[in-house]
Amino acid sequence: MSIDLCKADDLDDRTARGFDILGNGRDALFVIRINDTFHGYLNACPHYDPSARVPLAWSKDKYLNAGGTHIVCSGHGAFFEPETGLCIRGPCKGAVLTRMAIEISSDGMLKLPNTSLTGDDNDSNR
Ligand code: FES
Fold first, then answer.
1. Domains of the chain
2. 3-state SS assignment for residue 10
3. Does residue 81 carry a pLDDT above 70?
4. pTM for the full model?
5. Ligand 1 contact, 76 CB (< 6 A)
6. Which of 8, 32, 79, 119 has its C-alpha lying 20 to 30 A from 101's C-alpha?
7. Alpha carbon distance 105, 92 (integer Å)
8. What is the CA radius of gyration of the chain?
9. Is the beta carbon of 91 within 6 A of some atom in ligand 1?
10. Average pLDDT in the 79-89 region?
11. DSSP state of 69
12. CA 106 to ligand 1 center in whole angstroms
């Protein structure tokens, strides 16, 4: 069973939104919209082991830099490519964010397919 996240139209281009799908007061994953493509990532900076789930955003939904060109980690300033999750600058350069598969339903709802929160290599957005 998939999980409804939000309407795709609720996300403007070059914005991000986090989702507390576990209901523990913390965003487990986030989605960014870049040129009408949606990319989902686990909210866990690869500077540390993903099992530690060290969050990236300094505030709710603040996953991108001011220009909306890169994902930024508030911990130590790592920069990531939004389309790939590759870290291009910072202490984890060369590491990648854990991608989460995101689907869009026929009625325009962003959905998280039935997947574990450890990431999913079966991503249709790649
Ligand atoms: S915790 Fe993300 S760069 Fe250090």
1. 3-112 (2.102.10.10)
2. helix
3. yes
4. 0.90
5. yes
6. 79
7. 34
8. 13
9. yes
10. 98
11. S
12. 37
